[in-house]
Request: fold
Amino acid sequence: MSTATKTGVQRQIAMVLDLNKCLNCQTCTVSCKKLWNQDAGTDYAYWNNVETRPGTGYPKQWSELGGRDAQGKASRGTVPDLDTQYGRAWNFNHELVLLKPKGDRNKPKAWLRPQGGNGEGSRPTWGANWDEDQGTGTYPGDNHYFYLPRLCNHCTHPACLDACPRSAIHKRKEDGIVLVDQDRCHGYRFCAEACPYKKIYYDTQRQVATKCIFCFPRIEEGEAPACARQCPGRLRFVGYADDRDGPIWKLVEKWKVALPLHPEYGLAPNVFYVPPMSPPKLDAQGRPTDQPRIEPAYLESLFGKRVHQALATIEAERAKKKQGKPSELMDLLIAFDWNKSFAIPAQSSKQPSGQQATKK
Reply:
């Protein structure tokens, strides 16, 4: 019996992201933001974001804000603070930068207007991508970073659903997408407190929870979510977890190179990652060593112990491809034809009752 059947879900839609191909172009972030949440109360909310790792993430240090402990048990979490952990939306001095005399334009950060709108308040001290491209290590020996796109994991066992006293959160039976019924939501934010990935946001204007909806109107029509469809790096794969001809089953179950983020939380996420391969460190003479720049222990802290075997499999298959031998895994990850990255049949019967309200 499949996991989807055990949880009362007919099928589970899922996504795999190959971190070896992410360019940090933020096209996924922009496409999601433009399509779904430009309302005044969600100006700070990013259903999809791309983080620089090692780094603090968004919201700041989200993995330390609770919701689950190292044994996967529920632990008291906190709702991220809008000023210090999310960072309010920035305001920009477009007229000053573009139209004022050159002397004014040369002032430090003339493009950034103080928080508050018209000069009042102080300049922001945090925001999405604040530490972008900073990484860690010392140039040129072992400096490094990689990119980690994040969205709601549409977990098999969602902590947000369990935490809601209003039964305003549910998993759709037809595809396992986790949605908020904003007509039932009273804005208690227990969901945001419980989610260890901190991918539930709060609409400060309408006072309701808001989150990634996996572009379910597109899924119903057989189309990939906007973040996946617009990705120029072809790093996202979308399909049903039980489709043995599709990319998800092959990467997660057959080749076992796609892993969930923080599997120790015990929520069985349905967003998976192909971990990043690492160039070697350099010695004092600038010669490559046999030590990877990205510490294996750090990758294990993100993706669990299986990350080592996943990387070994990718390395072995890449070596085969270099030798001119066939490799199903490499052909799949290269994504010669982007259409094959998405295996999403249109749903024959749509159920409006499963939809997340977008306006009140």
Q: What stands out?
A: The mean pLDDT is 90.
